[in-house]
Description:
- Residues 126-224 form the OmpR/PhoB-type domain.
- This is Response regulator transcription factor.
- InterPro entries: CheY-like_superfamily, OmpR/PhoB-type_DNA-bd, Sig_transdc_resp-reg_receiver, WalR-like, WH-like_DNA-bd_sf.
- Keywords: DNA-binding, Phosphoprotein, Transcription, Transcription regulation.
- Residues 4-117 form the Response regulatory domain.
- The protein has helices at 12-24, 35-44, 61-71, 85-94, 106-120, 154-165, 173-181, 189-202, and strands at 4-8, 28-32, 49-53, 76-81, 98-102, 128-131, 134-137, 142-145, 148-149, 170-171, 212-215, 219-222.
- By secondary structure, it is of the alpha/beta class.
- It has a 5-stranded parallel sheet, sandwiched between helices.
- The longest helix has 15 residues, at 106-120.
- The chain is globular and about 50 Å long.
Amino acid sequence: MVxxxxxxxxxxxxxxxxxxxxxxxxxxxxxxxxxxQALRLLAANEPDIVVLDLMLPGVxxxxxxxxxxxxxxxxxxxLTALGEEEDRIAGLQIGADDYVTKPFSPRELxxxxxxxxxxxxxxxxxxxxxxxxxxxxxxxxxATLDGMPLQLTTREFDLLAFFIANAGKAFGRxxxxxxxxxxxxxxxxxxxxxxRRLREKIEQDPAKPKRLSTVWGVGYRYDKCSID
Length: 228
């Protein structure tokens, strides 16, 4: 089955270039020039991934990303202008899975899309990962806490699965970028944002985490609350 990509950008030239590169890479591509058109296409036919410019007329990219997250876990790759760190962090906080800064290489964007889709479909062993009241079904890509569903983005799920699978070990942000994101370089604040979001979802008191701890001078460590 051909994977479908929705590209949302108000620049006709950017849309056309990205479309050609993604179609060359084997994807089926739909285009939207603004947020309202993107939301209509999303409602009509859910894509496998969205490439989303944050600076859109009318309904902006952050609002589109927010509504995508309300609907489910469709992966989102943001397009942001160079230097717009606050917008990039805001997008990651809402739940975007990756980002590319303008001006960008269309080939790099196609590789990022491929990487995010691959991770969205990744499975871990064993099928069920459990830590007391926190359970991840890695084949179904779902998570529950106290029996209630957790709304996790693709990247949040991957990061949490990695942490639980490597409980008790401390990892630096650069290593997490490499092993979870597959990035040899990148903004390490991406990891900080995702850890903060995970704490808000799995910790009883995110300010005093018991599972996902900060190891000063190193990075982060996951400590199981139950004994296997």
